[in-house]
Each structure stands twice: as C-alpha cells, then as structure tokens.
Write a structure and sequence with these properties.
Number of strands: 10
Strand content: 15-25%
CATH architecture of the largest domain: 3-Layer(aba) Sandwich
Number of helices: 14
CATH topology of the largest domain: Malonyl-Coenzyme A Acyl Carrier Protein, domain 2
Radius of gyration: 18 Å
Strand order of the largest sheet: 8-7-2-1-9-10
C-alpha cells in the first residue's frame, strides 16, 4: 500500500515548480489558474521573487499548494492518478493540497482558501506577540509537559506539531515559548530553538483564524475525496465531507498529529510514502517514525518521470 503526502510551510524555495511548468503544460496551467484565482502573479513571486516575501504565510500557503498540484498534474500527464495511492495526507496546509489532489476542492477554491487561511492566521495575533519553537530530543509527552510548565494564567504554550519521535514544535505567547525553550533544555532536549515564523500556529491563539476558516469553508463546494484523507486532527482516515470541513476548522488551533498519522498508515499496511511537492522534510520525518518505510520525492520533472516509471499502470 502507498500514501501520497503533501508538505507544509517551511518547504518553500525560490524557483520551486518552475521546471515542472517548463516540462509539462498541465503543470504550467496550475500556476496560471492559481494566479487567476488570486488576481496576482504568485508564480512570478515563486520563481523570481525574494524568499522573505514568499515566506509570508499568506504567500507560502497557496505557493506550496500550487507546487504540489503542479507535481500532481505532471504525474497525471504521465498516467498516474491520485487513485494510485491508498491514502492522502498533508502536514498542516498540506492537508488542503491533499484534498485538492483528491478532488474535494477545485484548484481555484483551494488557492483562495489558503490565501484566506494565511491572512487569518497572521492577523490572529499581532506580530511579535506569538512564537513557535522546535524541541529536539523530547517526545510528545515530554514536550507537552514542558509546554504546560511554561504556560501561565495569561500566557499560553502548547504542543503544536508532533512531527516525529524526536521533534515536537510548541506554540503560543512568545514569553511562554521562550520559557519552554529553557525548560526543554533543562529537561534534556538535544536542542531547543525558536523558529523563524510570524505567528503561533496550531495553538488556541489561532481561534480568530478558525472562525474565519469556518465561514470560508461554508461557502465552498466540497466533494468526497477520491482517496481517503488521513487527517491531522484525528490521525486516521476520513472521507465524509462534513467531517472533513469540521476537522479543517479544528486543525487551525489543534495539534498536527503527524507522527500518529504516519503510524496509523503503517498499521494499515502502507509501506511507500511519495512526497508530492517541494522539499523532502516529510520523507525525513517518516523515516524517523518508521525506519522500514520507503520514501520518494516528486517535486521536479525528473522525479515525476522516475515516479511515473514506478507507478504507471497501477492507477
């Protein structure tokens, strides 16, 4: 069995997806449709802009989705459909890419939803008041304990991303997150450092953004995915549209249960994970979760051709 997995923020690079657009008309059409949906040339920013502007949440989210979907459309042009996978999953914003690939959202709606999501998440907390930190060498239980100790009556810190057995990200008020960094080091973390992000994602401070997304998702047509989604919030497969909508809202403030999601897929019999889009961060996490798992990246034209050679005819 296999899963197609889709990356989240942090994977963005200037130039991502350009060779896909040059090699595959279907991939170029993805970037053109996203540009039209947003009313601006996001593709120019992705290919020719500066990394600081691309990394802004409102840009990074639709940009990474566009790159993932360009890779997916290139795969389809080579004869590999999303139904070649038994499950789809994505890390945070990657969940939207997964759902777009599986046909739940149209490409244009996905781009607009992620622009809305990025802006809402950025606007939820004034710049400088929130922070996130990676704790390396602590498991989720240990990191959650540190986060609880770092919290106070009026300053929140909570475990936000359970990425793999030795990497948990905490999120919340900046002062509380800074306390968590110090506490993690005292608790034996190999490393604990603040991350270069502009808002405290996946914490209760994102509640205003969750409200925005609840409204936005009510306005969008959704179709049951062609392949079941392993949802961040539940760490198990879901296909019901109403459930998916609810989980996408809860995901804004809830923990990304990536370690558990991968473990659940492995328990179902998944042995292959194909990372669709920019970078290879998910592949690294997956191998740390399950050493026997086979991983491969599909983010360049050469990688698409290699994947198609392995997967064509199985869709």
């Amino acid at each position: 069995m296999r899963a197609f997995v889709f990356p989240g923020q942090g994977a963005q690079t200037i130039g991502m997806g350009r060779d896909l657009a040059e090699a595959y008309p279907a991939a170029r059409a993805v970037f053109e449709e996203v540009d039209a949906a947003l009313g601006e040339s996001l593709s120019r920013l992705i290919w020719e802009g500066d990394i600081e502007t691309l990394t802004l949440t409102a840009n990074a989210q639709p940009a990474l989705m566009a790159t993932s979907m360009a890779a997916m459309r290139a795969l389809e042009a080579e004869g590999v459909a999303v139904t070649a996978a038994d499950f789809v999953a994505g890390h945070s914003l990657g969940e939207y890419s997964a759902l777009c690939a599986a046909g739940t959202f149209t490409l244009a709606d996905t781009a607009r939803l992620l622009r809305t999501r990025g802006r809402a998440m950025q606007d939820a907390v004034p710049v400088g008041q929130g922070a996130m930190a990676a704790l390396l060498g602590l498991d989720f239980e240990g990191a959650s304990k540190v986060a609880a100790e770092a919290s106070s009556a009026d300053e929140v810190c909570q475990a936000a991303n359970d990425n793999d057995p030795g990497q948990v990200v905490v999120s919340g008020h900046k002062a509380a997150v800074e306390r968590a960094v110090d506490l993690a080091k005292a608790a034996g973390a190999k490393r604990a450092m603040l991350l270069p992000v502009s808002a405290p994602f996946h914490s209760e401070l994102m509640a205003p953004a969750a409200e925005v997304m609840a409204g936005a998702l009510r306005e969008v047509d959704m179709t049951a995915p062609a392949v079941a989604l392993v949802a961040n919030v539940r760490a198990e497969a879901v296909s019901d549209v109403g459930t998916i909508r609810d989980l996408l809202v809860r995901q804004v403030t809830g923990s990304v249960r990536w370690r558990e999601s991968v473990g659940w897929m492995v328990a179902q019999g998944v042995t292959e994970f194909w990372e669709i889009g920019a970078g290879k961060a998910l592949s690294g996490m997956i191998r740390r979760i399950e050493r026997e798992a086979a991983t491969a990246q599909v983010g360049t034209a050469d990688e698409v051709k290699a994947a198609a050679a392995a997967l064509a005819g199985e869709a």
